[in-house]
Write a structure and sequence with these properties.
Rossmann fold, Elongation Factor Tu (Ef-tu), domain 3, 4 domains, 8-stranded antiparallel beta sheet, 6-stranded mixed beta sheet
Amino acid sequence: MTAQHSATLSILPEAAPAKAPAARDSRPLRLITCGSVDDGKSTLIGRLLWDTKAVKEDQAATLKRDSGKQNDLGLPDFALLLDGLQAEREQGITIDVAYRYFATDRRSFIVADTPGHEQYTRNMATGASTADLAVLLVDARAGILEQTRRHATIAALMGIRQFVLAVNKIDLTHYDRAGFERITHEFREIALSLGVKQVTAIPMSALKGENVVYEGKAAMPWYDGPTLVEALELATIRSSQAVGFRLPVQRVSRPGESFRGYQGTVAGGSVKPGDSVAILPSGMVANVTQIVTFDLVRNAAVAGDAITLVLDRQVDVARGDMIVSIDSQPQVGLSFDAQIVALQPEGIQPTKRYWLKAGTRRQRVSVQPLTLLDLKSGAWNAAESLPMNAIGKVKLSFDEAAIFDPYEQNRATGAFILIDPDTNNTVAGGMVTGKQATVDGIHRDGNRVILSLPADLADQIMASELFASRRHEAEVKRLTAAEAAQFWDDAASDI
C-alpha cells in the first residue's frame, strides 16, 4: 500500500459491526472544543471531519499539499482544516474561533474550535456562549492545567452543563489507565464545584483516531465507554422553552395606516393568536390577534422564529421593549447581580459607566465589581476591579428599568455585553444571575406597612380567608414594572 493511500486507510481501526439505524435528530448540536494550548483541539476536530467524511475531495487534496511533509503515520496535518489564518499556521496555534459542520447518520453538528492561549480567552467565551456541550481536552501527559480550569469555568458560567473530558495523546503515555483515571477524578471534582454533574471521560488519540469516530479497543481494552461521536450523538440540546414567551422588539412595522406589527425573533417560549401578553417595561397588556412571517400567517410561533406580532389594541411599543407572556414574566428592576468575563486590557473599572447591550436593548449601566475568581484555588476573593480575562461577580445599576431572565433559565434574555462608550470596544461579556432588591420589600410609613409582593403571591394572599375578613383595612394597588422599580428606589432613599 502506498503512503498516499495510507493517509486514509492504513491506520484506522476496523469498523464496528453495523448497528440498527436510530431515529435522526433534526436539530444540530452545537459544541465547542476547549482546553489549554497544544492539547490537540484543532487536530481532534480535523480528525472528526476526516473520519465522518465531511472533508471534500478538493479540501483533502489541499490539506495534503499544505501539510508538506507528512508525519510518521503518513497522515496530513488535520489542524489545517481548522486553522485558516496565516498567523495560526505560522505559529501552530488557534487564534480565532473556527466553526465547522459535520454530520452522522443520527444527527448533525456545528463545532467551534476555540483558542487555548490565555490572551484569546475572549474568543473562547464567544464560542461557548451558543454551545450545548463542551469537549474539554487535556494532554494525558500534563494533566489538568490552570487554563483547563479557566475554560471549564467559563463554559459552566455560559450555561453549559454537558462536558466531554477528552484525555488526548494517551498513546504518548503508553495508554496508561491509572493516569487517565487520576485525571478523570480530578476533573470531576472541579466540575462538581462548578455545578456540572454530566461528565463523560474518554481516553483518546486524536492523531491516530482512537476513540474519536472509531473504537480504540485494540490499544485500550480496559475502556468500555463510548467514542467521542457516540457521546455527541447522545447529548441533549438546551431548550428555549423553559420560560414563558419572550419577544425582544427589533422594529415596529407600519407599512400602511391599517397595519401595525412588532417584529423580532422569539427568544423563548411560544405564542399563538388569542394569548394575552404584557409589554415591558411599561407593563401594558394586550392580546395577540395575528402572527405574520415573510410569506404567511402562522397559527403559532416558538423560540427561534422571526415573526411580526399584531396586537388587538394600540399600545406604546418601541425597539428595545420586550413582549412577554402575561403569566410568566422576566425580572424588571434597576439593579441586578451578574457574572462577567473581562475582555479588554483595561479591564472593568468601578468608576466608569458603560453601555450594556442585551438583545435589542441598550442602556447606561454602572458596574460594581464584588468578587474575583481565583482559578488556582477556586475561591471567590473580594475585588475592586477586574483585569483582562478575569471572571468576576458584579452588581449592575441602571438609570431606567432593565429586563432580564436569569441566564440559567434563558440564554437569550439573560446575557449581555458591556461596551466602552469612548472606544465602542466590547469590554466584557456577562450573564445575569438574578435581580438585586434595593430594600427588603417592607416599608413602614407612619401607621402603615407597605408590602411589595409578586403578583401571583399577592393574588393568593388576597384570596385567603384571613385577608377577605379584613379586606376593608387594606389598600391594594397594582404597579407596572417601571412604577414598582421607581417606588422602591424612592423608598430606599428615604431610609
